[in-house]
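Regression report. Comparing outputs from two consecutive submissions.

Submission 1:
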Amino acid sequence: MARITGGVTTSHVPAIGAAMDLGKTDEDYWRPLFAGYERSKAWMAEQEPDVIVLVYNDHATAFSLEMIPTFAIGTGERYESADEGWGRRPVPVVEGHPDLAWHIAQSVIQDDFDLTIVNEMDVDHGLTVPLSLMFGQPDAWPCKVIPFAVNVVVYPPPSGRRCYDLGHAIRKAVESFPDDLNVQVWGTGGMSHQLQGERVGLINTEFDTEFLDRFASDPEALASIPHIDYVREAGSEGIELVMWLIMRGALAPDAKEVHRHYHVPASNTAVGHLILENPR
């Protein structure tokens, strides 16, 4: 049956995608950031996942203020890159895995998590930038992807505890799927950053480092961080880190960190990245 073998967390800064698309990755400003993902790309080539459940937040492209689902799972066959105002990113079409997506939806909803089921949507930089960081610029993405969107844009977002528990439910769902699949779960967004107001440009390296240090070994404590602490310590957009907790909850309690990268700044954001593996 299907199994979750590992997970990835990474920031999804739109400027990172633009740097790749415009051939700027070797410029002095960007080179240190992309260097931290070289090992990650080698790891991905070794792992060869069949499916990635990719947790991200939509940035008002698939969902507008007219409809804001807290949790939404993509059950479609394919997803185009969204036009976010400057044209579609020149990246491959994302191929979905409807059978596993519908199975996860059924299992998770019956475990009392309300999901919005989305059969058609475009996916924005929140999903495509992590794929580019981990796979580079291929002609086609090498595996299927199930988009899993979380509202962290409009108040109120889900709590870290709710996200962590949702990860447990996703793990249960995947492990009950009968096909032999190598599945990864990714959590994206963060780290500390604020895009508006008096604290625009905020970066809190101390908070970010502690979050990274405790992510593998003490996720229960991280799941208890209240919303207001994210805002105070990590900025208004730091709340994106609750999406990492879905990934952590989906992995085994004794999952091990195998790679870490932290870089400041990328645009006006602290970039964080972790790879965790489940015990074999």
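Submission 2:
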Amino acid sequence: MNVIIVDDEEHARQNLKRRLIKIDPQINILDMVACASDAYISIKNNQPDLVFLDIEMPEGDGFSLLDKFDNIDFDVIFVTAYSDFALKAFESMAIGYLTKPVDSELLSRVYLKSKQSQSRLINMALLDQLAVKIENLSKSRTVSLPSEKGVDLVEAESIIMFQSSDGYTKVYLDNGVNKISSKRLKYFEENLDSSFKRIHRSIIVNTNYIEKYYKSGFVVLKNGQELPVGRKYKNNMKELIGNR
């Protein structure tokens, strides 16, 4: 199976590559690219069987990339952080998709389904319908919180922080509600976008909630809460401050 991975975040590309190799040691990762223009060139040159395609990217989204092709003779699995309502649009089109953070079991299922497929042709009319549906949706991001009872979908903007707790992860929301996920903190570290940073061995914080950072080793959130910054993770804070 010849595969190209398109995602604007380096850690997301590397994480997906590592997990795909674990699922299928014979997989051939042809290329990994960060933007739509590079993706177009790579797909033209490499002729993949399957493309993992992030929807929101620099220099154009995933749909505008696909619009450049007269014929799409490769499978596409979209990687998305859109809401549950948007996912129903994907389901109605029978097009492969994964939500961020990507669940390993679902990744395996969707990938193997594509590998076993005999068809590499996408119905362009359906793809256009899907693009219109997505364009009309709110672009709020959601995060999946797997638990023993199922999966909770919450708005990323509402999450203040993740904290490890006895093999589970406690998720603190801005409305005062706390949720428990059966996944460990590392799962979220590998799959969350760049607005979330690990600042301690037991804490990942939404950087949008950080009010102040003290080099002595702690941050103050907008709600007044103080959180420790581990020595190992101070570079994450330096990077954040440098980007602001």
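Expected: both submissions complete independently.
Actual: both completed, but the second showed a warning that disappeared on reload.
Relevant detail on submission 2: Helices lie at 10-23, 36-46, 62-67, 84-93, 104-116, 124-135, 185-191, 234-243.
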